[in-house]
Specification:
By secondary structure, the chain is α+β, with helices and mostly antiparallel strands. Helices cover 46% and strands 23% of the residues. The protein has 3 domains: 38 residues, no CATH class; 153 residues, Beta-Lactamase (2-Layer Sandwich); 153 residues, Histidine kinase-like ATPase, C-terminal domain (Heat Shock Protein 90, 2-Layer Sandwich), CATH 3.30.565. A hairpin with a 2-residue loop joins strand 1 and strand 2.
């Protein structure tokens, strides 16, 4: 038998003659203790990097081989209800060669000792070697030494590790305690892996649901946009006929009608004109969603100055002070951003129409979050109705008081959303309103 020893030598004189005193100490257990310490240290480091039960099982089995050696091994995991075993790794010695038979072993019932290990703790089984050294029908050596250790996490068994050796009395109680410590060390890693895999599964399922729902919503939106565009476009021709004939009747044959008839005809012309405007705005709203987003640097300050100039030219009799912050630039679709900003500024222009000293401001605010804004000192609105602001044809004031179709803010919101931003408002009745909007620099359609 060969075993490690530690030698100490010293020269001396013995009975007047030179001699050497040699002392030897058996350090087998010391070496085994060092080996176990290294094994546990490496095991923790390697298990922390494992991402699947198969990886963790392989690491545990390799460590067991370094410490004890084995001719066959099995690593089974228990289902959460502890009723079903799943073979993760199964290796046997076939023809003096280790062969992974995990797939062939899948579905096989666990041994009596494996179940006993789950119920009562680690099991050491030492069998006497039969005559001839083999007992199986295929002349394969019979396992003479076996160890079964439950893999536990917080004292709850989640699996079983078994080692088999053909050598009689290859294992002892100390080995069994060490194997149990290894298995317990692996239990926490396996539970972490299970949690990570469950989180990954739930995330994948959630992402799939989001993708499916987004695809459904996109398809529905496209259908609605196509329907809106088609209906709006097809309605214009008959509407223009109604409007045209009504205006001809009013112009050429009004003398044949009484005052009540002329009033009815006048209202028909006005309603036709209003509906034509609604259809036109609806078509514009539909085009905003259908057009491709072309990103480029956009100077919003210059856009606002140009739009303010257009508003002044359209109603030169009004006195409105514009305060436009300089050099406010973003990346986005210049054509669409012009439409959004035009709708916001026109909204402010309209609702300051009854002010003798109107003021409209465009700038950038850092609170409550970084956002551009259009602020006015006009009619404002009650915040309890703010949810209606961005709906198509939704209005918070009567058309008689402030004319319009209720599509402008919905169009602005659609454009901001397409750029990856969002828009909201803050207001108070008769004290003006502020519309905030964000435009993330990395937004895309």
């Amino acid at each position: 038998m060969i075993f490690p020893v530690e030698m100490a030598c010293r020269s001396l004189i013995f009975h007047g003659r030179p001699a050497v005193l040699a002392l030897s100490t058996d350090i087998l257990e010391h070496k085994r203790a060092e080996q176990r310490l290294r094994a546990f240290s490496n095991l923790g480091r390697r298990l922390s990097a494992a991402r699947t039960p198969q990886e963790a099982a392989r690491i545990l089995i390799d460590t067991s081989d370094d410490l004890f050696g084995w001719d066959a091994c099995t690593f089974d995991l228990l289902s959460p209800d502890q009723n079903t075993f799943t073979t993760i790794v199964c290796i046997d010695n076939i023809g003096r060669r280790r062969v992974d038979i995990s797939k062939q072993s899948a579905g096989m019932a666990p041994s009596h000792y494996a179940r006993q290990a789950i119920e009562s703790g680690a099991q050491l089984v030492l069998r006497p070697q039969p005559p001839g050294g083999s007992a199986a029908a295929d002349n394969a050596p019979l396992s003479a030494s076996l160890m079964y250790a439950p893999v536990r996490n917080n004292a709850k068994a989640i699996g079983v590790l078994s080692l088999h050796s053909h050598t009689p009395r290859a294992y002892n109680e100390n080995d069994l305690r060490t194997l149990q410590a290894l298995a317990d060390h692996c239990g926490g890693a396996l539970e972490r892996i299970r949690a990570e895999q469950e989180i990954a599964r739930l995330n994948a399922e959630l992402e799939k649901r989001v993708r499916d729902r987004s695809a459904q919503l996109e398809a529905i939106n496209k259908e609605l946009e196509t329907f809106s565009y088609s209906v709006s476009h097809d309605l214009r021709a008959p509407l223009r006929s109604i409007r045209g004939f009504s205006e001809v009747l009013l112009e050429r044959h009004s003398s044949q009608l009484d005052d009540r008839g002329r009033e009815f005809l006048r209202r028909t012309c006005e309603s036709s004109h209003q509906m034509d405007t609604l259809i036109d705005d609806l078509l514009k709203f539909s085009r905003v969603s259908r057009s491709e987003l072309v990103r480029q640097p956009v100077n919003l300050s210059l856009l606002a100055e140009g739009l303010a100039s257009d508003l002044r030219k359209a109603e030169p009799e009004r006195t409105v002070e514009f305060l436009i912050a300089p050099q406010l630039a973003v990346e986005g679709d210049e054509r669409l951003l012009r439409i959004a900003l035009d709708n916001l500024l026109r909204n402010a222009w309209k609702f300051t129409g009854k002010n003798k000293t109107a003021r409209i401001e465009f700038g950038f605010a850092t609170e409550p979050e970084g956002a551009f804004f259009v602020r006015d000192n006009g009619a404002g609105f009650d915040m309890q109705y703010a949810g209606k602001l961005f709906g198509v044809f939704q209005r918070l004031h009567s058309p008689v008081e402030f004319p319009g179709t209720g599509v402008g803010l919905a169009t602005a919101q659609r454009i901001i959303n397409r750029h990856g931003g969002h828009i909201w408002a803050s207001a108070c009745p008769n004290k003006g309103a502020t519309f905030y909007f964000t435009l993330p620099p990395d937004a895309s359609s």
